[in-house]
Amino acid sequence: MHPIEFAMEAIADFRTVGAVAPSSRFLTQAMVDPLPLRRARVVVELGCGTGAVTRALLGEMPRQSLLLAFEINPRFATYLRKQISDPRLVVIPASAENIRKEVHNRGFRHVDAVASSLALSLMPDQLKHDILSESSSVLQRSGVFTQYLYLHGVQWQGGRPEFFGGARLLGRHFREVNQTIVWPNLPPAFVYACRGARRHLSTA
Description:
Blueprint: H1 3-12, H2 14-17, H3 25-32, E1 42-46, H4 52-60, E2 66-70, H5 74-83, E3 89-92, H6 99-105, E4 111-116, H7 125-138, E5 139-150, E6 154-157, E7 160-163, H8 166-171, E8 174-182, E9 189-197
Parallel strand pairs: 1-2, 1-4, 2-3, 4-5
Antiparallel strand pairs: 5-9, 6-7, 8-9
C-alpha cells in the first residue's frame, strides 16, 4: 500500500489505525526478534496494518505453523489477503479482545507468541486490560508478547492529556517487561518484550 494511501486511511480511522506510517524495518525487527518463532506452532498478531510485521513473522516461522492475524480495519484486512499469499496466514476481522475465543475455535488452547501493534494509548482502559488479559492468558508459559508504543504516546485521563505508561500497564499482566527504544522509525517507538504471563489457561 502506498504511504499516501496509508496516511489517508489513518486520517479516516486514526483510533483504529493508530499510526501515521507503516512500521520501519528497524521497528519490525525489534518486534520480532524476542519472539520464540523458530519452533512455534501458533502465533498471533494483533493490528496487522499493511503487513510489515506480518511478513517478518512469516519469514521466521516454521512451514507447518499458523499465524492468526487480527485486523478489524476492512481495507487493511482485504489488502493482507490479496498481498500475502501464504497458506499459514489466517486473517481474522475480529477485535483483539476476542483472541481466546478465536484461538479456541481453531482447535488450539495456547499460542507460542503474540505480536501487538495495537494503539493501546488510544483505547479505553477497560478495553486495554481486556486485550492484555486475553493475550496473556492464551500464551504458553514460555511464550512472549511484544508491543510497540510511540515515544510521544499520551492518553486522556479526566479530560486532560497524560503520558501513557506502557511498562506500568504491561506489568499488570506480565511478570517481566523489557523495554527498548527504536529511534529510526516515524515516529520513534518503545518496544516491550513481555514474559511470564500472570494469567494462564489451564493446560488440562
